[in-house]
């Protein structure tokens, strides 16, 4: 009995090591285990409340338009709509996500990297690996109850404060 449990633990550790080895060099600030778990939990709750905007690898191509010679993501929410951005750290090629942190910084949107695109997709209730998730302030369809909205705000505030603390320690 004990050996099975130990074998599972060692297999899980190997899996975690592989995730960390596959990280892109630009994946900073990277969420630690506790913050990653809390962030993915927030994404899961927000997904149920339909307050989520997702981007799959290559999906942004159909959303781009050209304005004054500059390619702009037409569906990137404005700062008042978006509160938090979660980016997968193991996306290849890196060029797919290199512009996202720049857009977030220009719009004053906090962002954090999580180690796995598969975990991010599972939290967002999709089968396809996801490279970026935007947590919105209001649902895309309908309205939320006052109690549920307060719970989401409290959890959001906790995650964003942890992310800002992580970011200040890096830079």
If you had to describe this structure to a student in words, what would you say it looks like?
The protein is an alpha+beta fold. The chain starts with a helix and ends with a helix.
The dominant shape is: globular
Radius of gyration: 17 Å
Structural class by secondary-structure content: alpha+beta
In the predicted model, the low-confidence regions spanning at least 5 consecutive residues are: 59-74, 76-80
Mean pLDDT across all amino acids: 77
Number of helices: 5
Query: What gap, in angstroms, lies between the N and C termini?
Result: 47 Å
Sketch the major β-sheet. 4 strands, mixed
Key descriptive features of the protein:
4-stranded mixed beta sheet; single chain; 171 residues; two-stranded antiparallel ribbon; alpha+beta; 44% helix; 5 helices; 6 strands
Structure at a glance:
By secondary structure, the protein is α+β, with helices and mostly antiparallel strands. The protein has helices spanning 2-21, 33-48, 99-106, 117-123, 146-170; strands at 52-56, 64-67, 70-73, 82-88, 111-114, 130-136. The protein has five helices and six strands, in the order ααββββαβαβα.
Indicate the topology.
Blueprint: H1 2-21, H2 33-48, E1 52-56, E2 64-67, E3 70-73, E4 82-88, H3 99-106, E5 111-114, H4 117-123, E6 130-136, H5 146-170
Parallel strand pairs: 4-5
Antiparallel strand pairs: 1-6, 2-3, 4-6
Helix pairs in contact: 2-4, 2-5
């Amino acid at each position: 009995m004990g050996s099975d449990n130990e074998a599972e633990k060692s297999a899980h550790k190997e899996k975690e090591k592989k995730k960390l080895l596959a990280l892109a060099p630009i994946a900073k600030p990277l969420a630690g285990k506790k913050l990653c778990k809390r962030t993915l939990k927030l994404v899961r709750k927000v997904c149920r409340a339909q307050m989520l905007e997702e981007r799959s690898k290559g999906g942004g191509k159909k959303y781009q338009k050209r304005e004054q010679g500059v390619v702009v993501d037409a569906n990137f929410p404005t700062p008042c709509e978006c509160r938090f951005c979660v980016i997968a750290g193991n996306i290849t090629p890196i060029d797919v996500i290199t512009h996202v942190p720049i857009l977030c910084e220009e719009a004053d949107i906090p962002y954090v990297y999580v180690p796995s695109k598969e975990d991010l997709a599972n939290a967002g209730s999709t089968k396809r690996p996801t490279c970026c998730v935007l947590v919105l302030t209001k649902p895309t369809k309908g309205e939320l109850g006052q109690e549920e909205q307060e719970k989401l705000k409290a959890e959001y505030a906790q995650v964003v404060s942890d992310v800002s603390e992580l970011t200040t320690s890096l830079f």
